[in-house]
Design a protein that fits this description.
The chain has five helices and 14 strands. It has helices at about 1-15, 30-55, 55-65, 80-95, 130-135, and strands spanning about 20-25, 110, 120, 125, 135-140, 145-155, 160-175, 180-195, 205, 210-215, 220-225, 245-250, 255-265, 275-290.
């Protein structure tokens, strides 16, 4: 009897619908092209953030303000001492241990981790070694933006709806060491997916974690959380978290998923201000189900 029970159960399992999503290797030349695509996309998106933060009136008012001949540099007296202070502070943040968090893997969920396939950075972003350790970091770039991210390729052997969720944590903080009425700072997380290296992404999402306009001496903010739960402040119908990212996948196509962090800044020369944003992605989970077909 038990042998027959086993046979029937094995038959049902073998007849059950299964979905397969796999990692995909790619040549270095194709990888360079894919990196240029995310660079162009992020530049366009973050230029928009900069234009929202700072307009011509702000620039005119800032230019009209007299500049003190002697800067206090947040009480540190010299630019050299301010730089040393920032380097030591950021070094401690960068060297901090990975935060632990509880996670239960649901039945049927695919899990994978480093090494990932791609790492990329812009401005004062750092992703060196990100393929191996899953970490990326940004600090400000004067009147510009910084971004850094990690990418991985996926394929499937049958049509599926994939729910892609980067697992791990992010941390951010900013601090001003003097009154900076015309300073602007904004930062957040991002996830972008490309199909077959097409010029435009299949989907992209960039929630804002902080947005500051004008700072006073010794003001600041900080925050942290899970990467997947990163979301802009609620407006209207509520927040939209970074993940899961849902995408219909088909056989024969290759998908590149970028997870990245970013910040934009409008700062005067030698402003006593620092912002730090990092994330650590030790693994990624993927759930697959039948594709959604819209008629």
């Amino acid at each position: 009897m038990y042998d027959e029970i086993k046979r029937h159960i094995e038959q049902r399992i073998s007849e059950g619908q299964r979905f397969s999503i796999e990692r995909s290797a790619i040549a270095d030349t194709d990888g360079d092209r894919d990196t240029s695509l995310i660079s162009a996309h992020v530049t366009s998106e973050l230029d928009r953030h900069i234009s929202e933060m700072y307009d011509d009136t702000d620039a005119a008012e800032a230019a009209a303000q007299p500049r003190d001949e002697v800067r206090e540099f947040g009480g540190l007296r010299t630019r050299h001492q301010l730089e040393k202070h920032f380097v030591e502070r950021l070094s401690v943040d960068i060297a901090s241990t990975v935060k632990t968090f509880d996670f239960t893997v649901p039945s049927g969920t695919r899990v994978f981790g480093p090494p990932y396939d791609r790492e990329w950075s812009e401005g004062n972003g750092f992703s060196f070694g990100g393929r191996v350790d899953g970490k990326a970091i940004t600090i400000p770039k004067r009147n510009g933006f910084s971004a850094a991210g990690i990418g991985f390729y996926l394929t499937t052997n049958e049509p599926v709806l994939a729910a892609i969720t980067p697992q791990g944590t992010y941390d951010w903080n900013w601090s001003a060491f003097e009154n900076l009425p015309f300073a602007r700072s904004r930062g957040g997380m991002g996830i972008t997916i490309y199909t077959n290296s097409e010029p435009q992404p299949t989907m992209s999402r960039q929630p804002v974690l902080w947005s500051a306009s004008g700072m006073t001496t010794f003001s600041g903010q900080k925050g942290s959380g899970r990467i997947a739960e990163a979301a802009s402040p609620a407006f209207g119908l509520g927040t939209v978290p970074l993940a899961p990212a849902l995408i219909n996948m088909v056989p024969g196509s290759r998908y590149l998923v970028w997870v990245w962090c970013w910040q934009t800044s409008q700062l005067e020369e030698d402003d006593a201000f620092i912002a730090f944003l990092s994330f650590s992605m030790p693994f990624v989970t993927i759930d697959a189900s039948p594709p959604i077909l819209l008629h």
